[in-house]
């Protein structure tokens, strides 16, 4: 099954950022298959599609899960 998640490093020349984005995406994709992840300076930005009724709860869960990954200093979650 193909995932609809995508990984978008802000700096394509920075292999560390790309690796971090891929690792965080791999950690989250099973629970959140429709996400987009960008990284810049160990800050992970996640865009995800949420139902408005559960938006806050899922956004916080996403943030906590991403912060557990080594190298992640900050997580921003943006519903789309």
Summarize the structure.
The chain has helices spanning 15-28, 55-67; strands spanning 6-9, 35-40, 43-48, 74-79. It has 80 residues and is α/β, with parallel strands linked by helices. A four-stranded mixed beta sheet has the order 1-2-3-4, covered by helices on one side.
Q: Any descriptors?
A:
single chain; 80 residues; alpha/beta; Alpha-Beta Plaits; four-stranded mixed beta sheet; 2 helices; 28% strand
For the termini, the CA-CA separation is 23 Å
- Which CATH top level class fits? Alpha Beta
Count of beta strands: 4
Low-confidence stretches: none
Quote the average pLDDT: 82
Summarize the helix and strand pattern as letters. EHEEHE
CATH topology: Alpha-Beta Plaits
Oligomer: single chain
Counting H and I runs of at least 4 residues, what is the number of helices?
Answer: 2
Structural classification: alpha/beta
User: Roughly how much helix do the residues carry, as a percent range?
Assistant: 25-40%
The radius of gyration computed from the alpha-carbon positions, rounded to a whole number of angstroms, is 12 Å
Largest sheet: 4 strands, mixed
Bin the strand percentage: 25-35%
How many domains is the backbone divided into? Answer: 1
CATH architecture verdict: 2-Layer Sandwich
Strand order of the largest sheet: 1-2-3-4
Inertia-based shape: globular
